[in-house]
Amino acid sequence: MCYQQGKGQIAVFLVCLLTLLVAAGFAEEERTDASGLWRYVLEDGGATVMGCVDEPDADLVVPGELDGFPVKAVGPMAFEMCVGLTTVELPEGIVSIGSSAFDYCENLLQITIPSSVTSIGEFAFYDCPRLAFITLPEGLESLGAGAFIGAGLTSIAIPYGVTGIEEEVFALCYRLSDVTIPNSVTSIGDSAFYRCNGLTSIVIPGSVTDIGDFAFYGCVGLTSVIIPDGVTSIGRYAFAACRGLSGAMIPASVIHIGDSAFDTPGAVYRIDDADEEIELKGSDSLLLTVVEGSVAGLFAIENHIPYELVE
Question: Which CATH number applies to 1-153: 3.80.10.10, 3.20.20.70, 3.90.1150.10, 3.40.50.300?
């Protein structure tokens, strides 16, 4: 599974789309502010920061206005590959952080996101390995796919306004050990927590109805999981290659379980990660707790997984 390729394709698409919009007159041409430091475009009476004239170093403080226009957004790829950045402070009033805005900022340690932000775009903090902690604002409603792939996060609290955890959003966050999911979330997307090795437990709220393919694949630190009543679908390989997983409770509400969603005893899973072949062995001691006559009970029997029955 290679994330770099997919991310690159989306980035190229965004550049092409922005070029077409400018050519068609749907987006303002880029400007340089009076100080000569910032690049921006005007959208809906506000400024969208597109980056700095010169690559920023160390501490970056984005101003609240440019040439008298309030700063309302950080644009797509605005600070992409700014390897010198260590801290970023965004002003109150910004409502969105664009796709790939801070991706590949490999030395970014800290960013202050104001309470006004409601959306964070796809791959916004892709491959920021030193970004250990971030506070997401309570008003956040949208967290884009792959927003934190490969980030150094150790903990994350998802705000109540978020209703779905998008695909790959925390994939390859190897150090992530503490996750809070609110009961506003109804779905956990494909590969959302793919190979988050540091996770030892996860509380899935009762609002969730769907757990996607590979959602917790390779989370080798997980020891047990309780699927809440109300979940109807568990995707392919959702909990596969979780070699520390010893118990999983699956309710009768689950009517679909994808292939290899849980480890078959002795299973070895082979994946391709960043062009490197990796083997992840499944758990040999997994015990499923299921309701008699349920889909989960049949799944355990068909896959030769030890199980116990509950009423």
Answer: 3.80.10.10
CB 42 within 8 A of CB 25: no
- Those residues whose C-beta lies under 8 Å from the C-beta of residue 48, and which sit 6 or more positions away, are 40, 41, 42, 71, 72, 73, 74, 75, 98
Q: How does pLDDT run across 88-138, given as a tens digit for each residue?
A: 999 999 999 999 999 999 999 999 999 999 999 999 999 999 999 999 999
Around Cβ 238, how many Cβ atoms within 10 Å?
27
Contact 151, 174 (CB under 8 A): no
| 201-311 carries CATH number 3.80.10.10 | yes
Residue 86: in which H helix or E strand, if any? Answer: strand 85-89
**What does the pLDDT look like over 198-249, one tens digit per residue?**
999 999 999 999 999 999 999 999 999 999 999 999 999 999 999 999 999 9
Q: What digits encode the pLDDT tens for the residues 169-204? A: 999 999 999 999 999 999 999 999 999 999 999 999
Alpha-carbon span 53 to 76, nearest angstrom: 16
The reported pTM is: 0.89
DSSP secondary structure string, 212-238? Answer: -TTTTTT-TT--EEEPPBTB-EE-TTT
3-state secondary structure of 276: strand
Q: What single DSSP character describes residue 251?
A: -
